[in-house]
């Protein structure tokens, strides 16, 4: 299993969670844009390298990566404009959005032993 394999699993779980909360904007891994796959791989690497990091640190790492690549806050996710509604402090995220960081972290920690 590779870092990209774990990122794919985390992405697919996130996609299914999003569907469960009424968000159908996530594409399957094979159809996801390269920037989204890269973001997931970087998230996996963050948790492998920082095993004690919590979901808030995961979000902060994701948000820094987004800002560093030109993204900013926007009320609606728009990849063309590089706007995302989750570019806010972790504690300001709705619980449903915070839960995605808990899920991502757990997937990485469950699968990292197979790297």
Notes on the structure:
- It is a single chain.
- The chain is mainly alpha-helical and about 120 residues long.
- About 55% of the residues lie in helices and about 5% in strands.
- The protein contains four helices and two strands; from the N terminus they run αααββα.
- It has helices spanning about 5-20, 35-50, 55-70, 95-110; strands at about 70-75, 85.
- It has a two-stranded parallel sheet with strand order 1-2.
- Helix 3 (about 55-70) packs across helix 4 (about 95-110).
- The longest helix has 18 residues, at about 5-20.
- The chain is globular and about 40 Å long.
- The mean pLDDT is about 95.
Order of helices and strands: HHHEEH
Unreliable stretches: none
Could you give the count of β-strands?
2
Q: Biggest sheet, strands in spatial order? A: 1-2
Which value, in Å, is the CA radius of gyration? 13 Å
Mean pLDDT: 97
Structural class: mainly alpha
Distance between the termini: 5 Å
Characteristics:
115 residues, mainly alpha, 4 helices, 2 strands
Secondary-structure blueprint:
Elements: H1 3-20, H2 34-49, H3 55-68, E1 72-73, E2 83-84, H4 95-111
Parallel strand pairs: 1-2
Helix pairs in contact: 1-2, 1-4, 2-3, 2-4, 3-4
Short description:
The protein has 4 helices and 2 strands, in the order H-H-H-E-E-H. The protein is mostly helical and 115 residues long. It has a two-stranded parallel ribbon with strand order 1-2.
């Amino acid at each position: 299993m590779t870092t990209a394999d774990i990122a794919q699993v985390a992405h697919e779980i996130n996609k299914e969670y999003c569907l469960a909360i009424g968000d159908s904007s996530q594409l399957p891994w094979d159809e996801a844009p390269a920037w989204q796959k890269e973001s997931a791989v970087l998230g996996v690497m963050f948790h492998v390298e920082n095993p004690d990091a919590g979901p808030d640190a995961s979000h902060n790492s994701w948000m820094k990566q987004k800002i560093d690549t030109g993204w900013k806050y926007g009320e609606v996710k728009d990849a063309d404009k590089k706007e995302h509604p989750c570019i806010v402090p972790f504690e300001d995220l709705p619980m449903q959005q915070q839960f995605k960081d808990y899920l991502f972290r757990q997937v990485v920690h469950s699968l990292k032993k197979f790297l």
